[in-house]
C-alpha cells in the first residue's frame, strides 16, 4: 500500500498494479499466498479509485498460475471496479490455443477491459496476441522491434502485419503505417542494434523476391507471392536479379528498366551469364547491370558489323 500512496503523490494519472501469482513466483519471489494477494489487491485498487485515478491490475506468470486462483482474484478486483485486468505470459510458455481459452474464460468473468502481455521465448508472441484479440482482449502490449526481457515481447510491426491481413480497412484507417519503418529505424539506432533481415514488413528481405518462379509471378501479379502490399507501409518491393537463383523474367524487367531492348532468347542467354558469375562469387546489382550492358553492346556490334555476302557464279 505504501508504494501505491507514494505513486499517487507524484501526480500520476493512473497506477498499474502487478504481482506474481504462479507457485514459482509466490515461493521464490515475493513469498505471499493467494489470500494475501487478493486482499492487498482489493485494498490498493479501492485506494487508487478513491483518488479519482485509473487503475489496472495484472497477474504475472498467469499461464503457470492455478486457474481457480486466477479467476477468484480477477472476480474480486472486478467487483471493486478495477478499470482493466491483465494477464501475462511472463516466460513465453503459452500456445495460441491456451491464450484463446484463458482470455475467453476471463471475458466471461469480468466486465472490465482485458490487457495481455506475451513474451516470445517460444516464438508465439504475435500469434498469441492475435488469438487474444479474437477471444475478446481489448489491449495488447507491444514494443518497437519486440524489444524486451530475453527474447522480448509482441513486436508492434509483426502485430500490424497480422492484423492488416484480416482487417485491412480498420488498420489502415486507425494507424499511420507509413511511419513504422521510420519508428523502427529510430529505435534500432538508439539502442544500437540492426533491424533483423527477416523482420515483418520492414526487414531487408520482407518484399524482396529472388527465385525465378517467384519473380515471374510477382511481375505479373504481386498477390501471387505477397499477402502484404508494401505501398501500404510506404515501401517498395524489389525483384532480385543479381543472383544465381534469378530467372530470365526478372532480368527481362531489368533490361527494360535500363532502356535496352533484347529478344526473349537474348535475355535468356544474358541470364545464363549472370547466373554463371553468381555461381563463382556473390554479385552486386552493378555487376549484373555491367553484364547486361556488355551483352547488349555485343549484340549491337554483331548487328553493326555483318560478314560480306558470298555470291556464287
Automatic annotation (TrEMBL):
Residues 1-181 form the Pyruvate carboxyltransferase domain. Keywords: Transferase. It comes from the Eukaryota. GO terms for biological process: carboxylic acid metabolic process; small molecule biosynthetic process. GO terms for molecular function: acyltransferase activity, acyl groups converted into alkyl on transfer. InterPro entries: 2-IPM_HCS-like (IPR050073), AIPM/Hcit_synth_CS (IPR002034), Aldolase_TIM (IPR013785), DRE_TIM_HCS_fun_bact (IPR048253), LeuA/HCS_post-cat (IPR054691), PYR_CT (IPR000891). This is Homocitrate synthase, variant 2. It comes from Neurospora crassa (strain ATCC 24698 / 74-OR23-1A / CBS 708.71 / DSM 1257 / FGSC 987).
